[in-house]
Amino acid sequence: MPPMHRSPSNASPVLINAPLLVRWPLPTPPADGDKEGRGRVLIVGGARQMPGAVILAATAALRVGAGKLQIATVASVATSVGVAMPEAFVHAVPEARDGGFHAAAARTLPQICKAAGAIVLGPGMIENRALAPLVLAILRGLSAQNAVVLDAGALTVLHRHRKRLPEFSCGLVVTPHAGEMAKLMGDDKDAVIDARLQTVQNAARDLNAVAILKGAETFICDGNTTYRNVAGNVGLATSGSGDTLSGLIAGLIARGASPLQAAVWGVHLHACAGEVLAQKMGPLGYLPRELLGEIPSLMAGFAPP
Questions:
Q1: Sequence spans of domains, the chain
Q2: Are 241 and 53 a contacting pair, CB within 8 Å?
Q3: Among residues of the chain, what percentage have pLDDT more than 70?
Q4: How distant, in Å, are the alpha carbons of 14, 67, 299, 300 from that of 228?
Q5: Domain 36-301, CATH 3.20.20.190 — does that match?
Q6: 64 in Cβ contact with 269 (< 8 Å)
Q7: pLDDT digits (tens, 9 = 90+) for 222-260
Q8: Claim: this prediction has a pTM higher than 0.85
Q9: 287: helix, coil or strand?
Q10: Cα-to-chain-centroid distance, residue 35
């Protein structure tokens, strides 16, 4: 069972550590279960210039045990992504001249997204004129049976529309670092850094979402309880690291975790994988894709005795 919720206004953040995760076990699939029982993840993202981001997120979703995987990316790279990710069904999405998603994608993607229990929206996406209307169209078409991890471009492009996010029925997880949080919430980056705890709590309340404020110290809040992660190291601060985190969270949601539990577990697994690699390779220079090979054993290590 999850820890008791406490109001962020009168309680210190809950430290994320091994004992907490042992007390808050992930849903366990039955021994005779199949892939349908571990849910469907859809990764929406990529661009002609950045096809790898969706591969990182997709790999992460499978590493935490998601059952079925789909990817929606721009047409010019869809075949290459499918070859690199043979476990996935890949949708080729209409592509704009700038290499990002075309406005026509809003006619087909919302329906594709409805069939996924967990969706990562944003890795590697270009912030062109089509992106905000596309993200809003996808969110509008979802129900309480869907959860969306908003990341990167698909998150920051909503800064003019953030007051609309509580209107949508789907579960939401937002994953900004300080700069992205400042843009999303219309604040100053230095102000966000100076008041990280209050910022993440305000964002969770204002957006009706599980909010993650990433950094050397990462805070997670659902509007009731705030969690604090201090595991990890500076080697995690590199290109592609956020894509892997978003995929971990979505994969955990697909297999039955709540958005809050998935965020807490995903952040800590990601950080602990960085610690393992720092011990093996050194504190700098390991790659985000290398994190993912450490995830299954770490996840098993946090299972109840």
A1: 36-301
A2: no
A3: 95
A4: 6, 29, 19, 22
A5: no
A6: yes
A7: 999 999 999 999 999 999 999 999 999 999 999 999 999
A8: yes
A9: coil
A10: 21
